[in-house]
Design goal:
This protein is an all-alpha fold. It has 9 helices and no strands. Keywords: DNA-binding, Transcription, Transcription regulation. It holds the Pfam family TetR_N. This is TetR/AcrR family transcriptional regulator.
Length: 189
């Protein structure tokens, strides 16, 4: 009999929180079972195993990132939208490094996979940001990859404590936003 209050959503949320604390590599079914107060076999009533858990955490993370970035850009366009999106994305990764790590390299099984749906939501938010730059349709994918690389790279390096020199990290991130803005303005139609 499943523990009262324990369902798939609760298991995935607990797994995501634990991944944020110990890193995705440190998340195991055993450590999650201990966290939620059940024996490991009980988790299989809610998730199909470690891979299924990681996929569900990735979908959760992408949806949460889409919500955070989407809320941040409301009412903004151009550089202001870019800055709001970049800051919100960075903040999400810094606050949730384990669950964000689950999104890297995770392939959807098809177009209806919750992972694909969540990924499209985040993709659509950043695509909307690019509309303010009047990027040629043929260049949108390139611009999205550039933004993903810049924001992902900076946030994951910061989350890994890789910026240990004296320059202020926030100033460096604002410099990155200005750099991206100038590049995007340079490639307008």
């Amino acid at each position: 009999m499943p523990r009262a209050g324990l369902n798939q959503a609760a298991v995935v949320a607990a797994g995501a929180a634990l991944a944020d604390e110990v890193g995705l590599a440190g998340l195991t079914m055993g450590s999650l079972a201990e966290r939620v107060g059940v024996r490991t076999p009980s988790l299989y009533k809610h998730v199909g195993g470690q891979d299924d858990l990681n996929r569900r955490i990735a979908a959760l993370a992408l949806n949460q990132a889409a919500d955070a970035v989407g809320s941040a850009v409301q009412g903004y366009a151009g550089r202001d939208a870019l800055a709001a999106a970049a800051r919100a994305f960075r903040a999400f990764v810094l606050e949730h490094p384990g669950r964000y790590a689950a999104t890297i390299g995770m392939e959807p099984s098809g177009p209806d996979d919750p992972l694909a749906t969540a990924g499209r939501r985040l993709h659509d938010v950043f695509t909307a940001v690019l509309r303010g730059y009047e990027i040629a349709e043929s260049d949108v994918d390139h611009a999205l990859r550039m933004l993903r690389s810049l924001c992902h790279g900076f946030a994951t390096l910061q989350a890994g404590n890789a910026f240990q020199w004296s320059a202020d990290i926030d100033e460096s991130f604002e410099w990155l936003i200005a750099f991206a803005d100038q590049g995007l303005r340079a490639v307008r139609r």
